[in-house]
DNA sequence: ATGAAAGCGCTAACAG
DNA sequence: CTGTTAGCGCTTTCAT
């Protein structure tokens, strides 16, 4: 059995209350008593029991994180960034993956609720299916949404300038001379994709180009799913000269598909992806990408949560972090 | 304030104990009483408080995971695999990164202890500095070590056949005709590296080759660190014709270094890396690698922990998962 | 400055 | 089948 405050109380002959004050560094304790307690604590190898503490204080010092897939470098970067700000403050990160399924999101939220996390950081699965989030927001638990927007929710949201990013990517290709540009994405129910495509469309229309419906292909959110969508996108649109991928999974699937189909990048097709990751630099060819400030999304979210927990006031709301086009070698002018 | 069992008891006119039994599905409860309770629970939107439950049962339904860096695809894959087995069983995953620092490992373990996790999965930082792990193992908390071995510890360990992998990688290069082979690694204090290098040395000696000291370069465990080590390895050993990288971070650093130094893979130098990841397939050239059964490491660890928690008996000890050489295009015969 | 005691929400004997 | 009661380990008034 682990040693408790009572053990120390017995050992020192003091009361539990005094010992608690000495250990917890609050209230009045005489220097002598404190020293006795510290000594006894060390001798008995006392470790405070957080569960009991939580029970009494209502704080767990745990923050929940719900993302699509913690294995996705985009999300694991965010997880690390969050961790880096909360761990020094005594908090721990509980992570779970939804695979972008609303049901899983709901049960995850429920579980975190029951486990009494002090705050929740969430990349919401669906713009349309979000009533459960409304209830969440009404609860007292601090929450911040990352990467994706839910309309009409009075909550902190930290996202990238996806519309701008989509526009910039498309514009870059258009300037290069491309006129038939595909877009590989997963569900539009994620605002990130929706906005990126909106940006892409804005650019197309600015250049007077009429988008063909088959240019935008929506597929599963795994690399395997993206591969299939990539094959179908490329197969159905032989005349396409460039493709934008909405994230690194989509890019991987697309690149793999192109490779298998004997389509050479950028000779046959130019490619831009969102989600800048190291390996883009090492790809053949190095992939031009729209970089988000991924770590900053995590850091900001964590800081907001902490302020929120501590009851510090700040203006709650939507923050859009700018994106940055990183030009590498996966885009050239079209051949024809 | 959230509704408690007491509220339901009051609402239904039953006792708290009966309500608890109905909710917790244990012990005898009449059908009528159960229905009343369920109805009241729904009406009052009751959510069980896990903290209180933990307090009473001593179980938190939380599993701790301590790795070098959750952002590393190798570790995030493991995290996901663990998650996939424990979440359906009602457990949650608390993750933390050590940056391979012993001090951080110690404080992380302490914190998890205080938070009363039901089990701990750990990629230990150091073979030599592991006394704190001895204490840990003596405690009652279920623990399994992953990816790395600590000698003389009576604990579950799930690792890859690193010696075999190192041997196979080196042998492959030797068969190709290479005679001067570098090895880029981080600290030898991690058994994984130690064993991989041992395998490499075994292969060298089998082929009657005397290793030069400058061939093995140890560097920081980040991509940036690996880049520097890569530059120095390549700079100091102009005659080297092949390099083995001990993990994907090392490979990234090495490849980036080679690129900047105008060294072309595989024309000037052949490269093999451990840690097979998707992007190896998309690299220029696609990287030959020693793949570990990464997901399985996580799954097994999780299953062990669960069995352990449940007091199910099984033979505790070391499991070595076989590695697999995946040949792509980053190795050729040396030019000279 | 210290101690006594109540209470956080739930579980688990035990008695009935 | 149900109710009573005693904790789990810590915090936190309220007295002293």
TrEMBL record, chains A, B:
<dbReference type="InterPro" id="IPR000843">
    <property type="entry name" value="HTH_LacI"/>
</dbReference>
<dbReference type="Pfam" id="PF13377">
    <property type="entry name" value="Peripla_BP_3"/>
</dbReference>
<protein>
    <submittedName>
        <fullName>Transcriptional regulator</fullName>
    </submittedName>
</protein>
<dbReference type="InterPro" id="IPR010982">
    <property type="entry name" value="Lambda_DNA-bd_dom_sf"/>
</dbReference>
<keyword id="KW-0804">Transcription</keyword>
<dbReference type="InterPro" id="IPR028082">
    <property type="entry name" value="Peripla_BP_I"/>
</dbReference>
<feature type="domain" description="HTH lacI-type">
    <location>
        <begin position="3"/>
        <end position="57"/>
    </location>
</feature>
<keyword id="KW-0805">Transcription regulation</keyword>
<dbReference type="Pfam" id="PF00356">
    <property type="entry name" value="LacI"/>
</dbReference>
<dbReference type="GO" id="GO:0000976">
    <property type="term" value="F:transcription cis-regulatory region binding"/>
</dbReference>
<keyword id="KW-0678">Repressor</keyword>
<dbReference type="GO" id="GO:0003700">
    <property type="term" value="F:DNA-binding transcription factor activity"/>
</dbReference>
<dbReference type="InterPro" id="IPR046335">
    <property type="entry name" value="LacI/GalR-like_sensor"/>
</dbReference>
<keyword id="KW-0238">DNA-binding</keyword>
């Amino acid at each position: 059995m682990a040693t408790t405050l009572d053990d120390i109380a017995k050992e020192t002959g003091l009361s539990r209350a005094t010992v608690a004050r000495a250990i917890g560094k609050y209230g009045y304790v005489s220097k002598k008593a404190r020293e006795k307690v510290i000594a006894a604590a060390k001798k008995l190898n006392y470790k405070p029991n957080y569960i009991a503490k939580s029970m009494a204080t209502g704080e767990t010092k745990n923050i929940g994180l719900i993302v699509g897939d913690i294995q996705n470098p985009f999300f694991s970067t965010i997880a690390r960034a969050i961790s880096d700000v909360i761990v020094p403050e005594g908090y721990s990160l509980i992570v779970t993956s939804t695979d972008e399924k609303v049901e899983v999101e709901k049960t995850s939220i429920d579980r975190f609720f029951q486990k009494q996390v002090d705050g929740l950081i969430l990349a919401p699965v669906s713009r349309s299916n979000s009533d459960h989030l409304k209830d969440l927001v009404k609860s007292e638990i601090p929450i911040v949404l990352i990467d994706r927007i839910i309309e009409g929710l009075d909550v902190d949201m930290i996202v990238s300038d996806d519309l701008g990013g989509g526009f910039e990517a498309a514009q870059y290709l258009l300037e290069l001379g491309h006129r038939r540009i595909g877009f590989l994405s997963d569900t539009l129910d994620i605002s990130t994709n929706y906005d990126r495509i909106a940006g892409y469309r804005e650019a197309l229309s600015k250049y007077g180009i009429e988008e063909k419906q088959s240019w935008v292909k929506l597929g599963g959110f795994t690399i395997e799913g993206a591969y299939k969508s990539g094959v179908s996108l490329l197969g159905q649109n032989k005349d396409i000269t460039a493709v934008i991928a909405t994230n690194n999974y989509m890019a991987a699937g697309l690149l793999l598909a192109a490779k298998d189909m004997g389509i050479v990048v950028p000779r046959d097709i130019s490619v831009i992806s969102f989600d800048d990751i190291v390996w883009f630099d090492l790809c053949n060819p190095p992939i031009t990408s729209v970089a988000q400030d991924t770590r900053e999304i995590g850091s900001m979210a964590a800081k907001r949560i902490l302020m929120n927990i501590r009851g510090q006031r700040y203006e709650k709301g939507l923050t859009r972090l700018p994106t940055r086009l990183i030009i590498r070698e996966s885009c050239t002018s079209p051949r024809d």
